[in-house]
Structures
1.
Amino acid sequence: MLSKENNDLICRVGRGTPMGELMRQYWIPALPSSEFPGPDCPPKRMMLLGEKMVMFRDSEGRMGALEEYCPHRGASLYFGRNEDGGLRCAYHGWKFDTSGKCLDTPTEQPDRREKFCKNIKARSYPCHEVNHMIWVYLGSNAPPPFPKFEINLLPETHVIPPLIMMEEANWLQNLEGDIDSTHLDWVHRRLHEDSPKPEKGMRGFWNPTGLPPVLDIVPTSYGAYYSAKRVLKDGSEWHRINQFIFPFHTMVTQGDGTIGLRSHVPVDDEHSMLIMHIGHPVEPMSAEYRSRIANVFEEVGGYMDRTNDPRSYFMTKLNKTNDYGRDWKVEKEIMFSGIPFAANLQDRAMTELMTNDKGEAIYDRTKEHLSASDAMIVTVRRQLINAATKFRDASEAPANVHNVELDTVRSASVRTPANADWRALTESARTATPGSAAAADVGLILD
Ligand code: FES
Ligand SMILES: [Fe+2]
């Protein structure tokens, strides 16, 4: 349970809020490179942490992100012409490059144009593009070093374009699902050990003993990691070791040799994008894996058409308006939940309907009753409250803003003998050492 004050403190992310200001210290993944297929392609609206921006790729292929409203008289730069090294506002022709520098103010008489132009600047957000993804920095200071997540360091061939899902709820309740191992045994499980894969989505999770996992949590300077231990049929122990990394990232093991970064990026207080970025640490991603990931949503109907609002991007056709495609026959015969187990569709059904008394999709944590199975969630909330408060009161941000070496961690799926010291045994498995395989002793879905 959280007080209303602390709940607001860590959920709300607009400019000037403690958590919003903390998030603005970090580089934030925004849109995949494929949204901007070539130089001078059409600009796109985007929204991050409630801030409206227009993103564009200039004539040299560089990415830029400008505040949506033109510094002249506020027209939307979304309607701007993207040409000759900048975005030219459609209203009166003022032009800006990717850094926000004013290149032209043709409304001024030629003799004073250059001087006038020098004093105008559009608000710009630095961009950094790597491995099919464009990251944006929303802070007011110079950007910190770029994060050293393994997904950002691998060769491009080893990384597939990110899979993205818009979630219609506050970022924190979505993230809390990622660090809640216990729900695997319920919303994602199959009904019987031999239940087949349903027609749509993955086969369900299976826990041989049916006992809840035993959690062991380690807070760190970059967030926290934990093991969820389950016992396998032969008596050995299966540790699923997952990471939480400030401000909104997780690493959740799939047990298949891949590595990944999952980011719950707040678009505003009631929408966040789940960006799943997957790679392989030692070999190029196979064409088969690549197409399987690319088609995850196709099997469940794909994405809806977009409107001109960034909150409609990556919205799956299955959503809260149609009960996420719940299939009663599947629920009776195959899976604990009849919603397809495809990316976070089942999770969204659990988290998107959590609201506060105003009906906002921001869960009111004053009403909850936590159990031992929520220990990782409690730790992460405490870490977030401490980090946001320290930054608000003393301008001191967590260590991983500047020490990006702290980003070089991994999740891991490890089998150990009974009662082994998992923390000591898995130090290398939790470290992203270049060229080393990911610990994948047990796959997420036991056959
Ligand atoms: S409002 Fe953009 S040039 Fe006038
Ligand atoms: Fe889940």
2.
Amino acid sequence: MNIRGISFVKSAESMDQMPDEKFPEIAFVGRSNVGKSALLNMLARRNALARISSKPGKTQTFNFYCVNEEIYFVDIPGYGYAKVSKKKRAQWQKRIGAYLTGRTTLSLVLHLIDSRHPPTSLDKEIMLLLCENQVQSLLVLTKADKLSGNGITRSIQRVRKDLTAYGMELPIIVTSALGYTGRNELLERIFNAIPTAS
Ligand SMILES: Nc1nc2c(ncn2[C@@H]2O[C@H](COP(=O)(O)OP(=O)(O)OP(=O)(O)O)[C@@H](O)[C@H]2O)c(=O)[nH]1
Ligand SMILES: [Mg+2]
């Protein structure tokens, strides 16, 4: 179970520009700057496949990558970025919601949350949306290299508490894009979510 090959396929602004629904998809979802693009690079062991930036709002399109010619990874625009107009932000949120609830080949959502911060109200909206629409998902705590062992334990407890409040129980995976932390566990979950994948 590993990534033998990964290549960029295309960017889409909306559902009608996306590739045909021919492969199962793994979506990277989370607020701006949480580390979605960095996580994709970490899984692929490629430094510059997806563009990352210290400035939030870097990824503004749905970016499709083909893995092992059998799966799509989809790096999606971050939500909650303060420096765009209210109208544009609402538009993005609508597009993300449409994708998460309407894409028939969506197999697994990796919902990323910064391990240093509590889930935001938008994070909680996404949790609910995924739960209500029965989209298979898991929680990824990012940037764990910035926390101590105790800090990580607290972070896991905090997210679990929010999930429990919604009656949800999801795997929580601690990651760091710097140290490859969590890579094997995450890859295993991804490939297990796709029955035919090798
Ligand atoms: N220390 C540390 N920094 C990280 C990690 N993951 C990402 N970063 C940093 O966080 C910033 C944002 O990372 P991105 O991957 O661009 O974030 P994103 O979620 O794709 O952001 P948008 O495209 O704006 O939605 C960059 O400066 C990264 O270097 C991590 O695991 N550890
Ligand atoms: Mg990005």
